[in-house]
Design goal:
This protein is an alpha/beta fold and about 325 residues long. It has twelve helices and nine strands. Bound molecules: S-adenosylmethionine.
């Protein structure tokens, strides 16, 4: 790269990223320039007074003003763009992933939260909010909690909620506990290291029959459906992707079975799945244990989440 103006750097980077198959080339270039503008040794918190790290708006502003950047920034930017062109996930390079109202630290060893999961989290938030409005303090569990994205969104958006996450991968647990401390939610969110399969018999034993909402984005990809995008295939942890069994539904089925033990009668289950799994997921949540199983679409209209209520007239399955 020869240009040193922000505008020139962004133009070159956008062309390079687009040629490498990055669908959001200009946006990625702007976010990477913002990252390069920051101090790599002291990455500030978003909006933290005094040390706020530069954002995309700063990169755009420099570009519009025709401003030059220092050689050090240009060098850092070139390195980041090269890595992104090799299809390292944008969020691994910036170190951050946006999720609803939050920004979470992410990197190698933890699944990067996705926009479609924001709809799943919203369903859990809405239910918890209704309970809170009725004067209750809803108890929510996030099974397969990864970075903690869903758990933290529910807790931050519903101040009366208490949330318990369960995650098997110790690396992901480390990332999520780091986020938990940063977000100041430690009094209301707990991340437990364990297996959601039969979690009602171990890590969540004391919560049986007490939980108001079980929400989950489990691994669900079938074994023969390797993701096409290198960001996913080569960088998301394997444990976060493949659901097990011939159809990818082994862990999701375990989530549903565990949820049946955890939920109080009338409690709500919300679980993400692949768009090809809607009917199969509904078949895993039938009466009398479950009531009203239905599928909810994501923002692009694809059927992506199972929603069902724990039957009110039956105790444990
Ligand atoms: C698709 S990721 C979702 C992470 C997070 N909920 C999100 O939406 O960003 C699935 C997560 O489930 C975890 N996981 C896989 N099998 C599990 C199991 N048997 N028990 C608990 N967690 C599991 C993976 O390590 C991974 O973090």
């Amino acid at each position: 790269m020869t240009a040193r103006t922000a505008d020139g750097l962004l133009r070159e980077a956008t062309l390079r990223l687009a040629a490498s198959g990055v669908a959001t080339a200009r946006a990625d270039a702007e976010l990477l320039l913002a990252c390069a503008l920051g101090d790599p040794d002291a990455p500030g918190e978003p909006d933290e007074p005094g040390v706020a790290r530069p954002g995309r708006a700063d990169a755009v502003r420099l570009s519009l003003l025709g401003s030059e950047v220092t050689p050090r920034v240009a060098e850092r930017f070139a390195d980041l763009v090269g890595r992104r062109a090799n299809r390292e996930p944008l969020q691994h390079l910036t170190g951050w992933a946006g999720f609803r109202e939050l920004e979470l630290r992410v990197g190698p060893g933890v699944f990067v939260p996705r926009p479609e999961t924001e709809v799943v989290a919203c369903l859990a938030v809405d239910e918890a909010r209704l309970l809170a409005a009725a004067g209750e303090s809803p108890l929510v569990t996030d099974l397969c909690s990864g970075s903690g994205a869903i758990a933290f969104a529910v807790a931050s958006e519903v101040p009366r909620a208490r949330v318990v996450g369960v995650e098997l991968d110790s690396s992901a647990v480390g990332w999520s506990r780091d986020n938990l401390a940063r977000l100041g939610l430690a009094g209301r969110v707990e991340v437990r290291h364990g297996d959601v399969r039969r979690a009602h018999e171990h890590v969540l034993r004391e919560l049986c029959g007490e939980v108001d909402v079980v929400v989950s984005n489990p691994p669900y990809i079938p074994p023969d459906a390797e993701p096409v995008d290198p960001e996913v295939r080569d960088h998301d942890p394997v444990l976060a992707l493949y659901g097990g069994g011939d159809d990818g539904l082994e862990v999701p089925a375990a989530v549903i079975a565990t949820a049946a033990h955890l939920l109080r009668p009338g409690g709500l289950l919300v679980m993400e799945h692949a768009e090809t799994q809607a009917a199969a997921a509904r078949r895993l949540a039938v009466a009398p244990v479950w009531d009203g199983a239905h599928t909810v679409a994501d923002l692009t209209g694809r059927p992506r989440a199972l929603v069902a209520r724990r039957g009110v007239t039956h105790s444990q399955p």
